[in-house]
Amino acid sequence: MTKKFIPALLALSLLTTSCQDFLKESPDSLMVEGNFYKTEADAEAAITAAYDVLNNQWDIYYRGIYLLAELPTDNAECGQGVANSYIFALKDYTTGPVNDRIYTLYTALYKAIANANVALDKIPAISFTDETKKNRLLAEARFIRGLLYFNLVRLFGDVPLVVHQTTSLGDVNAPRAKAEDVYKQIVEDFTFGEKNLDATATAATAGRPTRTAATGLLAKVYLTLKDYPNARDKAKAALGDAQYGLFASYFDLFAPANKINKEFIFAIQNKGGTGTGNGFGMALYLPRATIALPGGGTVAGNSADVPTQEFYDSFKAGDLRRDRTFFTKYDAGAGAATFRPHWYKFFDPAAITTLGEGNLNYPVLRYSDLLLTYAEALNEIGGPTADAYQAINQVRRRAYGKSGADAAVDLAGLSQSTFRDAVLDERRWEFGFEDHRWFDLVRTGKLVSLLRAKGNTRIQDYHTLFPIPQRERDVNPNLTQNPGYPN
Amino acid sequence: MHTPLPAGRPAWWLIALLFLSVPGFAQTIRGTVSSDQHTLPGISVRVKNTNRGTVTQPDGRYEIQASSDAVLVFSGVGYQTQEVSAGGRTLLDVLLAASTSDLNEVVVIGYGTQKKSDLTGSISSISEAQFKRVPIASLDNGLRGRAAGVQVTTTSNQPGGATSIRIRGSNSVNTGSEPLYVIDGFPVYNDNSSAGAGATVGPKLNALSLINPNDIVSVEVLKDASAAAIYGARGANGVVLITTKKGKEGPTQFDFNAYYGVQSVTKKLPLLNATEFAQLVNDANGKAVYTPDQIASFGKGTDWQNLIFRDAPVANYQLTASGGDVKTKYSLSLNYFDQKGVIINSGFKRYSARFNFEKKATDRLTFGTNLTVASTNANQALTNTGGGEGTQGVVVSALDFSPILNVRNSSGAYTLENDRGIPIGNPVATALELTNKSVSNRVLGTLFANYKIIDGLDFRTSVGVDVINTREKYYAPRTILAGYSLQGVGTVSSANSASWLNENTLTYSKTFGQHSLTALAGFSAQHFQRNLVTSSASGFVNDLLGADNLGSGSIINTPTTNTLDWSLVSYIGRINYSFRNRYLVTLTGRADGSSKFGDNNKYGFFPSGSVAWKLSEEDFIKNLNAFDELKLRVSYGKIGNQEISPYQSLAGLSNMSYIIGDKVYKGFAPSNIPNKDLKWETTAQTDVGLDFSLFNGRLNGTIDAYYKKTTDMLLWINVPWSTGFASAIRNIGSMENKGLELSLSAPILTGDFKWNASVNISANRNKVLDLGPVSQILTGEINGYLKISDPVIIRPGVALNGFYGYVSDGIFQSGDNIAGSAQPTAVAGDRRYKDINGDGKIDASDRKYIGFAQPKHYGGMTHDFSYKGFELSATFNWVYGNTILNGTRADLDLPTGQKNSSARVKDRWTPTNPSNTIPRASLNRAFLFSDAQLEDGSYLRLGAATLGYHLPTNWLKQVGLSSAKIYVTGQNLWTWTNYTGYDPETNQSGQNNILRGIDSDAYPLAKTWLAGIQIRF
Q1: Cβ within 8 Å, pair A486-B843
Q2: How many domains, chain A?
Q3: Which residues form the RagB/SusD domain (chain A) (predicted)?
């Protein structure tokens, strides 16, 4: 403060000497780039920033993706709490390039990629005592970038491929890169991760990807690219990492107490009650004004994001996953309430009155996903092999509460085609409310035919990609639109 | 006649004085000064060529020592100055004529004053009498309709609510375009968005409401480059100079003014009653949600508007003591203003005090102070959609809430929310239970000293401070929807801002022969700092402590602290020169260095020049015998605008957080794309004006034509999100404003019955010329769940505030060939749109400009009548030719049955009612933004009408009063408009340049009847 009064005194005495110091901006509460990216701590903070956008729930995980990957499928529908007409348009397949939910997801994915790019550009110039750590941090940024581009390329096809920080306004209008080039970058980023990420996860590092997380995502990338041998190999390699495995109980897997577990290979981290906005938000999918609270009033859910009755009914008798994926009654201590099926998988009873503060992690890659990826790859290469049955049946046995082989549960004797359908169904039951369904339907080429068969009259072949947001095309003349959407 | 006295020889001095005084012995001259009606108090009486002077008493009498051959000069505001030779008389009664022309007035021009007749720039003056015609809560409201080229728009009608003022249009897309206010020499940019501390929700309060408007004696509006260039990098939007009341020579004079009134809403919006709403619900759902028996039992149901509106009192008390002698002048005032809002539980109070003091310490040194302290206390009302679901404001809730429901349910608790789909909180509960308070304290003071170095050369220095402390408190208890799911949520914020200013000027004035010169040079430095602290918590055990004890919440959110500062150093120069009192020249320059700009561009220079020719001094005009005054003015100059937040040129980082290992980690990532070359934007303005006074002052007027071009606009250019950012700030693009202004005033009748009329009209045309690399700027989504996206699009060649949307074309009827239309998926009863590009389908390319928020013209008109002691005045203002996006109507005309609708929805399309205006009932809330949501915003308003009576002086003397006036005023008595919302003047987006003319569930306008008294003793 005193420094700022000196010029006042100068002014008083009418000395009109240099006022350069007086006019220099030295913000007290704003970090500026010139003071940052100097130390290892700064490098870690840059990586934290790259993670941050991932758990902005309404933007990316879970709901940003949910509205594009669960809602427009047979898994979900608009509940009574949906007020936004763009959400209805997503469900109905009537959306055009102007849709605030598509825009929100698109922008959040790029915002997070930009934060990863900054870290990747700045960290190399910071000196570390331990080069391994430096490479680990770089690998984390590349992992995040790879994961986000994997989402972008599956949702939108060709997308601008930006891999450096934007520091000037000179050249901002990046054109759409071919999807194959985007995949190339994704593979490169994950491959770097396979070598440089931490090998093992510890309680203190939960949330950071491991080498196996990169390998596992590579398996999924190759599966999407229909490069089945590579998908098989990567899945197998990842499945072989002994620190991971199936969690014994599907129900308990999603209990808040087990938020860090051996099955979540990579999960978005949330924590309630920290006052930092990192809690898991449950308001949009819990029932509205139905479940009585002991302190008076009712649970203030919104019933906006709800499953379809058909999905609920599709579960076979004995499948324990149904009553973890949904619930139709609940007693919060003031009497039981019953209601239509609502999502239940991510439910933290401790946050029943503070719905934005759930203490739950949201899985991006689970061990069971790798098992089904492995089974799918094997089946595509040479039909259902014993290894393929072994993989899918592991998932089924856990689902039905069986500890070993069980003829009533195990699949056997399927053709390549029926096995393919079985994997798709299994994925639906296994990953309800985990933002997989639309990707799975598109990957297997079933989206349009399946939704038509279930009564959707508006879906067209071009709906396997979402439109590039109109705003982006208005701003950047280099961007083209996906086929089928108004140009 | 006076002869210079030789200094240093007292004997000779005395002898000479005696000698010279012989023909005129000193004596006492007495008399009474009056006008044709009354005796005149407060008239200055001065012995010419001396320092001796006095002022007339309350009864108009004076007494002064003067030589028998002295000449006495009588002068007072509103009267022609008269010189009377004593001629040996000791009793001198003087009759002063009211001044017919105001061209001899002295006006404040920034760092000085000037005779109005000598002005070369375009300046509108608003006198105290004009300014205070309408009782106003803040000074900006006093400008409405008063000056050509000045448009005042209300951003909220809530007590203490803000306005947005444009002088000759908006100069910029993104940069603040409010004028600079200079209050007794202290410059204040009225940025309402940063005036608050952030905790409260709803429309911003008015930062200027902390300045008591009752203290103001004159307002000057500097409009062209010549006048405003003296404020350099802050002058481009025009400058409003505020001068407060100073003491005058004479005995202490007390003024007590008070008024008390009652306000009520000017209109309610017609809505569906409970029965009609139930029928709509059934229609929209396509099934009987309510049985016929239920519907029959509903009746009219709850009128939520009636429950949240009330008749509300407003009161103002002002006591002023002022006076002085030859060496000391002072004015001291106290004010209390209390306005309750017409929405329950809203209101605004102000306590303020002012002390203006000036002391002539020696013949050369004068010093003094202008100091005001004020405290305001507001209960703000959130009226519109606010943050999101469950936090809708009181007005939108009252309009949307189901009329079938009651305020309280059968168990006596508040009905929590609307039960028909869209969650809306109970409007009455929200109004009564939500805490949304703001308390502000302000000290604005300047100490100044003026030293006369030699005759004609003055040095003035001043030091001023402006300190504003604001504390805001928000608490939503669990009994209302906004606090329900979070179990109570509270926020407290505190903002302290402090600005200091030092200014030093040298002024030299000299008349030699036919040349007259005033030169000014100066240096000024200003520093501003603002500190902000915000804390919030939720999850309270009960609602007893709320925001007063955030620590008792179970979830304490990360606190925010923030400081920002800026500095400005300036070098000022001005020369006023006149030759033969006919040819006038003004040259002005100001160099400003601002911390807000990039390292490469700290300093800017803003020059202007103007010339004026007093044609009325020329013989060929004098011979016409028509003009008392006729003056032609031409000016050109470049002035700047620096109204962006600090630190925009830096590469800033924002803090973020993530969970690793179940612990919170903090991170940083860039928050903008830096720009080291950032600088001010520049507006070049040319103005040509004509001032005239005709037929012995029977018609006075001013005409101005101007052209302004803003270049290097501080423009937030949209960039693709693949950069990680939505936009980046650059100096790019240009925009023009051009316009015409006319003001006329005329004493139409001048006898016993007087009638003065004045009118001003302004027309401004704005056009965006260039947006640099982008072809258009999108403005995003407005209006919450209605999801109106990009209703305004900015494109070169088009005015700034253009609404861009579809063109509606009635409703599809049952027999129409819908399958063959451009909307093949529509059904009968859906709205039809025009296929503008004729490609056989309706998509985004069928949108066009469907209306503009900028009016074709606007203005004001005043009529004053007086007869004996009675006065009647009426002031009107109008806006013509603008379009309003009526967001309230867009919401209320949707026949979804998920919330209440307007009474128009009774005429919705049904197979048996082939309406062509309101579509069929449907749960679908989606609609295309079209001209169906736009309305003509033209209006003419009787802003105020006042009937006053001056009590006769002879009565008053008996009770010791010198003057007294009683009056009744009606405010906002009538508005002629086709606009269907509460108030066509409202503008929900505050001071924003782009989103203007958007009305969404605003605080309704109040009509006020008040009675007042003005006493002087």
Answers
A1: yes
A2: 1
A3: 334-485
**Closest by Cα among B325, B320, B322, B321 to B359:** B325
Phi and psi torsions of A100, nearest 5°: -65, -25
Rounded CA-CA distance B193/B376 in Å is: 17
Per-residue pLDDT of chain A (487 residues; tens, 9 = 90+): 344 444 444 444 444 445 567 888 888 888 888 889 999 999 999 999 999 999 998 899 999 999 999 999 999 999 987 877 789 899 999 898 989 899 999 999 999 999 999 999 999 999 999 999 999 999 999 999 999 999 999 999 999 999 999 888 777 899 999 999 999 999 999 999 999 999 999 999 999 999 999 999 999 999 999 999 999 999 999 999 999 999 999 999 999 999 999 999 999 999 998 888 899 999 899 998 789 888 777 887 888 999 999 999 999 999 999 999 999 999 999 899 999 999 999 999 999 888 888 999 999 999 999 999 999 999 999 999 999 999 999 999 999 999 999 999 999 999 999 999 999 999 999 999 999 999 999 999 999 999 999 999 889 999 999 999 988 998 898 999 999 998 7
Q: Is residue A315 part of a domain?
A: no
From chain A, pick out residues whose CB is under 8 angstroms from the CB of B591. none
Domain holding A79, by residue range, is 39-228
Which positions in chain A touch B426 (Cβ < 8 Å)? none
CA distances from B368 to B329, B332, B453, B466, B860 (A): 9, 13, 18, 17, 37
**Smallest CA–CA distance from A470 into chain B, residue:** B844
Assign residue A51 the CATH number of its domain.
1.25.40.390
**Domains in chain B, please, with CATH?**
10-95 (2.60.40.10), 106-246 (2.170.130.10)
Residues of chain B with pLDDT > 70: what percent?
A: 95
* CB spacing of A297 vs B655 below 8 angstroms: no
Q: Is residue A58 part of a domain?
A: yes
CB contact under 8 A, A7 and B843: no
Which chain B residues touch A42 with a CB distance below 8 Å? 668
Of residues A85, A88, A98, nearest to B844 (C-beta): A98
Q: Which two tokens stand for residue A382?
A: 């040479």
Strand B560-579 and strand B553-556: the pairing is unpaired
Query: Searching chain B, which residue's CA lies closest to the CA of residue A159?
Result: B722
Contacting residues of B for A173, CB less than 8 Å apart? 720
C-alpha to C-alpha distances, B858 to A420, B150, B152, B368, B996, nearest whole angstrom: 72, 9, 10, 41, 15
By the 8 A CB rule, do B143 and B126 touch?
Answer: yes
Contacts of A450 (CB under 8 A, 6+ apart): A74, A441
Which residue in the set A11, A52, A273 is minimally distant from B667, CB to CB?
Answer: A52
Residue B367 tokens, joined:
């010093």
**Spatial separation of the C-alpha atoms in residues B849 and B798, rounded to whole Å:** 9
Whether pLDDT at B420 is above 60: yes
pLDDT at A210: 97
A188 inside domain: yes
Kindly report the number of other CB atoms within 10 A of residue A313's CB atom: 9
Q: Give just the sign of the alpha carbon dihedral B823, B827, B828, B831.
A: negative
Q: Which pair of tokens denotes residue B722?
A: 């693949």
The alpha carbon of residue B270 and the mean position of all alpha carbons in its chain are separated, in whole angstroms, by 31
- For the whole model, what pTM was predicted? 0.84
Residue corresponding to tokens 């999924």: A220
Tokens 């689970």 label which residue?
Answer: A366
Residue A86 lies in a domain: yes
| Cα of B565 to nearest chain A Cα, Å | 7
In the three-class reduction of DSSP (H, G, I as helix; E, B as strand; rest coil), residue B632 is classed as: strand
Q: Say whether A110 and B523 touch across the interface (CB within 8 A).
A: no
Whether ipTM > 0.90 holds is yes
Q: Which of B569, B660, B674 sits opposite A269 (nearest CB)?
A: B660
Which stretches of B513-559 are assigned E, i.e. beta strand? Answer: 515-540, 553-556
| Beta bridge partner(s), residue B944 | B875, B971
